[in-house]
């Protein structure tokens, strides 16, 4: 794949280096002279000096043949512009943007960014998963499908304890994919009986999240 990365900060640098190590053709765009010089000493011709927000720079970078453009600057506004220039001007099939402020997620989605990645949300999810007593953790959002991957720890007083999955009224768009009981993984069927403190992994529609909380008593 040919991938253009906009923004030569630490994120852009490590992303570019890892993608190159995986065998991809990658070009990193950095507009600041001093940073460009530092990057080019290590990455050589895989770095181009220029502002990824500008169509002229993207043209020089060969955006018309790019399989993906990834914008990872420290400014959400720049990341949005980079992805929109790539998609609207050069018809790049896949755009991915770093999202520094989670409040901008819906805006990015409405403006056609294919994937937005929020380090803040990722860190919060990790912290939540490690907090004692935390029963409901959002692990991942699959934006294009409108689905979420949830981890639910069944509370001791949950109404589903002792019931088979076939006896539980789950939302229509909900699939329980894995149960961890102690250290044992269980791939559930309709006859699987739930126990207290089971860790249940579910793929659900975003709109069904609150219903799942109530069903398992993880509110």
From TrEMBL:
Which residue windows are coiled coil? Answer: none
Question: What are the boundaries of the signal sequence?
Answer: none
- Would you tell me the Gene Ontology cellular component terms? plasma membrane
Name by which UniProt lists this protein = Trk system potassium uptake protein TrkA
Which superkingdom heads the taxonomic lineage of this protein's source? Bacteria
Q: Which PANTHER family match?
A: POTASSIUM CHANNEL PROTEIN 2-RELATED-RELATED (PTHR43833), TRK SYSTEM POTASSIUM UPTAKE PROTEIN TRKA (PTHR43833:SF5)
Q: Where is the RCK N-terminal domain?
A: 1-117
Q: Which UniProt keywords apply?
A: Ion transport, NAD, Potassium, Potassium transport, Transport
Q: Where is the RCK C-terminal domain?
A: 137-218
Respond yes or no to whether keyword Secreted is given for this record.
Answer: no
Any one Gene Ontology molecular-function term assigned to this protein's record: potassium ion transmembrane transporter activity
Q: Which InterPro entries match?
A: K_uptake_TrkA (IPR006036), NAD(P)-bd_dom_sf (IPR036291), RCK_C (IPR006037), RCK_C_sf (IPR036721), RCK_N (IPR003148), Trk_Ktr_HKT_K-transport (IPR050721)
